[in-house]
Structure formats: structure tokens, C-alpha cells
Amino acid sequence: MQARITQLMDLLLLAPDIQEEILFMQATPGAQPLSERTLRAVLKSLDWPAQREWWHQLLPEVVKARSALAAK
To answer: Residue 53 pLDDT > 70, yes or no?
Structure first.
């Protein structure tokens, strides 16, 4: 339980603009294309510019996954 709380609290270390993008993402019913585990790659660095680079590399995969799930 404590490890899970730590994982979730780590999301607060994301750059504010990334947090905002995640919060305002459109939800696809019955799908979760973006998980906490996926975001761990972005959290490899606490440097916000580095996080933004990771995020922009990850974002096309997230969009593609969301599109595929919406087509089902």
C-alpha cells in the first residue's frame, strides 16, 4: 500500500503543464491508454524541460492508443 501511495504522489513531481494536459484529456469510455506506469518514464527526471521532452515523445503513442480504443 505504501509503495502505491508513493507512486501516485510522484505524479505531483510532473511539470505543471504536463499535469494540466493529463487532467484535461478526453476520457475514452472503457479505456485507459495512459497509466501511472506509462508516466514513470517521464518521471525518470525531475528536470521539467527533460520531462517535457519525454512527454512529447510519449504523447503520439498515447494519442494513437486512444484513437484505436475509440474505434472499437
So the answer is: yes
